[in-house]
Amino acid sequence: MPGRALPGEPVGDGTARDTDAVPDASRISPPVLLHCYPHPVRPGVEVTIDPAGLPLSRVRSALHAAWADESEGLLRVTVGAGERLDRDFILRFCLADPALRSVARATRRNDVSDDAFPLTVLPPSLSTTTPRARESVFLLDRSGSMGSWKIIAARRAVARMVDSLRAQDRFCVLDFDEVVEGVPGLGSKLVPATDRHRSCAVEWLAKVEARGGTEMAQPLAQGADLLGQGYLERDRVLVFVTDGQVGNEAQLLKLLGNRLRGARIFALGIDQAVHAGFMNRLAALGGAGEAELVESEDRVDEALAR
Question: How much is the pTM?
Answer without folding.
Answer: 0.71
